[in-house]
Write a structure and sequence with these properties.
Shape: rod-shaped
Largest sheet: none
Distance between the termini: 9 Å
Order of helices and strands: HHHH
Number of helices: 4
Radius of gyration: 27 Å
Number of strands: 0
Strand content: under 5%
Amino acid sequence: MTNHDPHQVRILARTATYPNAIEERENIRRVDKEVFERVRLNERHIIATAEAARAQALELEKVAVNLNADIQTSILAPLRQGARWDDSFAVLAQQAQDQGLLLLGELQREVTALDWHASRIADPYGSYIEMTNKYTMLRPTISVQE
């Protein structure tokens, strides 16, 4: 048994000495199957967390639309109808600005998360290997030869 990174285990299985070609093919197939099962599991996790980040971004979009509607009805519509700018409008405008800045920060975090997920989904094998190299305790224990 070995605890090399999964890519290295695949290489070791291909460079090992076997008594015959049938055992070689079967062992390489077994090692590849074990590695790619873990790659697929990691890929499903990445997709699930990306979908959650996307759902969060869509919720934030709704909040932004509602904030815009509030600005339209609470501030802009009265001013267009002839109301004079006073302290109450200034308070509303400051509250809207504060909410908008918080919302912008949250949206930027979600975009960063979605970008990260997209880069992992683009290369699920590479991202799995990278993860197991960064966090060696996540490396699967796969025997090179049975």
